[in-house]
Each structure stands twice: as structure tokens, then as C-alpha cells.
Amino acid sequence: MNTPVPQRLAALRTAMQQHSLDAYIVPGTDPHHSEYLADHWKVRAWISAFNGSAGTVVVTADQAGLWTDSRYYLEAAAALQGSGIELHKLGMPEVVDYPQWLANQMSAGSHVGVDARLLALSAFRRTARLLQHSGAEISAGDDLVGEIWPDRPPLPNGQAFLLQDRYSGKPRREKLSQLRRTLEVQGITHYLLSTLDDIAWLLNLRGSDVPYNPLLMAYALLTPDQLLLCADRDKLTQQDQDALAADGVVFEPYAAIGSLLRRIPTGSTIAIDPERTNMQLFNAIELSCRRVEQPQVTSSWKAIKNSTEQQHIRACMVRDGVALERFFYWLENSVGSPELSELSISHRLREFRMQGERFVGESFQTVAGFAEHGAIVHYAADRQSNRCVEPHNLLLIDSGAHYLDGTTDVTRVVAIGTPTEQQRADFTLVLKAHIALATARFPERSSGAQLDPIARSVLWRNMRNYGHGTGHGVGFFLNVHEGPQRIAAERSEAAMLPGMLTSNEPGLYRPGEYGIRIENLVLTQPAGQNEFDSFLCFETVTLCHIDRRLIQPDLLGSHERDWLNSYHQRVYRELAPRLEEPIASWLAEQTAPI
Length: 594
Description:
CATH topology of the largest domain: Creatine Amidinohydrolase
Number of domains: 3
Number of strands: 28
CATH class of the largest domain: Alpha Beta
Strand order of the largest sheet: 4-3-2-1-5-6
Helix content: 25-40%
Mean pLDDT: 96
Number of helices: 19
Distance between the termini: 58 Å
Structural class: alpha+beta
Low-confidence stretches: none
């Protein structure tokens, strides 16, 4: 049953009337506050037809809106045509976020609803405070969209497995002991984890329940002597179940988390993260249990890759680089073929990666955007939008993979045909911005907001800019987007620390023409200490050549030229011995000094 969006909105409004609601919020997440969702939880996508990873829909009796950021302006505008849903472009002047919009729209006595599983405690509180000013109130309760979604996919049922200690670098038992010691100092007896990547990291556990993310649908409740894992135990082999049991992990049904929280003994103290704990879980915790609200310490630990993980990351980047160079050689020799399209490029790149050892899957849907599609930051080709790649513009390819020993994310732009002078100038400016960040040195504990202008100011000086962040954290065979660190203009309390894996990806987009982004992953490393401070720097770990045809050498300073030549020398040194002829000789040409 594939009803049009206006009919779905009409059905939702009917359900709102039955529940005496004047407005209803549809977040674009799941009970675990994930970015990538299992099909069962794509509620916002179903009600709006917008599939981006960020966005919230609000429906009232006579209005409907979608709030999303600049990464999705173009994609959202196309998806919402004829839907009756208005696009609210976050970050644009005079555009307020949905809680303030609701406060402006609602009158005294109005009631706003939301599925209690899909809104975090902190977001609920912020919205409630704003609504109070207009005399309205919000209640976290029923899943109204689920009531009208006739063919909703079931909960996922993928297989899961334990990641070997030789990859993780730290046994599960040690992580659990470290967590308990940390909590004991604070007088905390229980610890709730609902974020899937934190559970996966803590237990050295990987799954297949979420597209592009090696995760298992689960909740975890740490008690003084056990870890209660609410998940389907049949997704793991008996051997893995026994290994978990030996470390004090006890399986409970996925849906049992509420009853477990309600049974916490009187006088206990539980730690929860208000940004990550949904309202259904919060409401299940009895008042007799003292609550400590704080950020999840596991997220900070997970972000700092240990020495074993760092060694594996470097090794997996070599294998990923081999696949990329084989792909780009194939691409160059396929230009002019009528079969060359955005979709065929995505499929072929996956095939090259699948040939590598320890490959598990793609870390996100490949962005292969030719010409104007490259200006859509998170564009994903489908049968309707797919276009042929012809020799007259730029091709942007943003892709990544999961291996047992790491996760990759890399963006390259290649010239298909002869690039224009404007394209070369734009590309070189983005390259200069990339190099500025790659070569930066900065005091320890600097924030991402402090680092963001290092790259962006290069473009600012030339009256250019881009709407997305400059960098995001990346997991170790986990989520390709991982906090807490990020390099962006928005303020963040998370500091850059040694061992963090982060992207470096400035860009430039000309809507209707082309897009440019150059992305490598970087490990934060110590740079030295003196009387002024302890300083950090970035180690670039991604290995893939940068298209020299798009570079205007006269725009590069000597230090920028030295960085590029040194980087290309390393790409050739690491990858060429693993490439067959004539690809190795071709790579020598691509990495020749400028």
C-alpha cells in the first residue's frame, strides 16, 4: 500500500483528533537516537517521503513542516513537492527550530504529542519550556504514525557476532570493569545504555540490524554484578552467547527494558544521559531510584582509539586505498561508455572493495553525484535520478566501507573531460582548505569549533563557503558518524584528544552546476610539549590520490605543494606494491610531483 503523502497526513490528523492533540512531532530517529535507521523506525521518512538522516516533521490541524539543515536543502525540497509539507531551512536567517515554531503557533490549552520512544529527555524538556510561554503543553505518549502505517516493516532480525580482542585491543571484561570502577567513585549503582554503538563498543559486539551500521538492536543495563542485555540472543551463536555469559552478560528480551528499569531496587542510583535517553525509558525509572544525569562516558572512551585499533586503521586504509585506485583506473578507462552512470559507478566501487580482505560492507550509501548532482551534499542516486556520466563536468564520489579492522570514509572529485578554469580554481581552494587543517597544530583540548575556521577561512578569503561541518568523528568498525567530537562552527564541549579519528572534508558547491569536496580521515596525535602548552596535530590515514588535473599549481604556496607531493609519494609507496600492472604505472602518473 503506497498512499500519497497528503493522504498519510490526513490520516495522521484524524488520529490526532482522536487523541485530542493539536500538533504532533515526528522525529527522524529511533528509540536509540540513531542516525541510520532500520526500516521499522523510518517513521519520519514514511510520513513525509524525505529520506535524509536529519530532520523533524511537525503536523498541526492546518499546517505541516519539515525542519532540516543545509546538507539536505535540495534533497528535501525535491522530496516535499506536492506533499503539503513546508520546508524550514535550519541555519537560514529568521528560521526558528520546530520547538520555537510550535511555541509561536500554539495557544493556551493546546496539546502537543510525540511518540515517547522517539524523543530524548533533553529535547522534551526544551520543547516543554518553550511551550509553557504560550500556555501549551507536550506529552510523550503513543505512536500515532504506527497506528496508520498499514505495511510497517517488522523489527530487524539480523545476525550478530563478537569482535575478536585482536581487533578491539581491549577485552570486554576489562571495559566492564573500568566502567564499574568509574561509576563506583560517583556512588552510581546502575548505568543505562540505549545507544547501539556504545553497546557494541562496550561488549565488543557487532550486528547487522541497521543498514550501513554493524549494530545489534539492544538496550543495556549495568548493575553491580551483571550487565542485562535486552536483545534477541538467537542472533548470536551459542559459542558467542557462552562467551558473553562468562563475562556476566545476561540476556533479556528486547522489549523488557521498561520492566527492568521499574524493578531497580529502592535506594539505587542510576546514571542516564538526557541527550540519549528517550522519554519512555525515563518514565519507566521509578522515583525511588536516584538519577544522575551526565554524558555517556562510554562515548568518550569509544572515540579514543587505542594503539591496537590505530594500527588496524592504518592497515585497513591500505586495503581500502588499493580498492579505490583500482576503481579510479577502471573509471578513467570507462569514460565515454553509455553504461557509465551514477548507479553503475556505485555498484562497481562496491565490487572492488568486496575483493579486499576483512570487508564487511559499505559504511553508508555511496554518493556518486555527477555535475549538478554533486552539489547535493548527501545525494544518493536511484532509478529516477540516475544520470549518465559524460565527459563534460565533475564527478563527486563520497564512499566508505566497514572492515573487521576499521571503518573508512573518503571523498574525491574527478574531472570527466576537460575542467573549466572556474572548476580548477574552486577545487584548488578546497584543496588549500583541506591542507590547512591537515597540517594544523593546536593546543591539547581544543574544540572542533576552534579548528573549523582553520579550513573555512581559506574559502572565506575568496568569498566562498560551505554549509556542512568540516569534520565528524568516525568509529572503529562502527558508525561512520561518531561523536562526541566534530569540527564545525557549532559550539561543542568535546575536545580533540589523541587517538580520535575524524574526517577532514571542506567543500564548495555551486547549485545547478557541480560540487567539490575533498575528504580524508585523520588521527589526532601528540605534536609536542613546551613552555606554552601541549600541542596536537593530525595524521592523515586515508590513502587515495587527488586529481592533479583539477589543481592550479600557481594558487598553492610552497608548503601546500610540499604537503601534496609528500602525500602523493606516500600513496604511491604504500599502494603501488599491492597493485597489478598497468594500474601501478598509472598510479605513478597520478601521484607525480607538481
